[in-house]
Amino acid sequence: MTLKLIKTDVEYQEALNRLEEIFDAKIGTPESDEADILGLLIDEYEKEHYPIDAPDPIEAIKIRMEEMDLKQKDLVGVIGGKSRVSEILNRKKKLTVGMVRSLALRLNLSAQILINDYKLLK
Length: 122
Hints:
Elements: H1 9-22, H2 30-49, H3 57-67, H4 82-89, H5 97-107, H6 111-114
């Protein structure tokens, strides 16, 4: 395959098909080098045409809790009592600056993610 920038969905699909063919190429071979370059080209195309939005603060908290195998009760004391944790995770109340600071430390999340706005449920 001739390597070039991917500009169309057809070229994108062709690149994915080719990458699938050579994905397990032995390291150091021309096919392995081609797979590395194709991976970069595909990644750039996907970033431009299929961007993935960052999760909202509550989703980010829930994702990190799952990754760390934490339960709701594990955030008691970090962002308040049992009912406050429930209100936050169920989108009944907004995070405060103090909660953002505590969560950023406890969950090793960027405060930048946690300060983004999100909708409350009624």
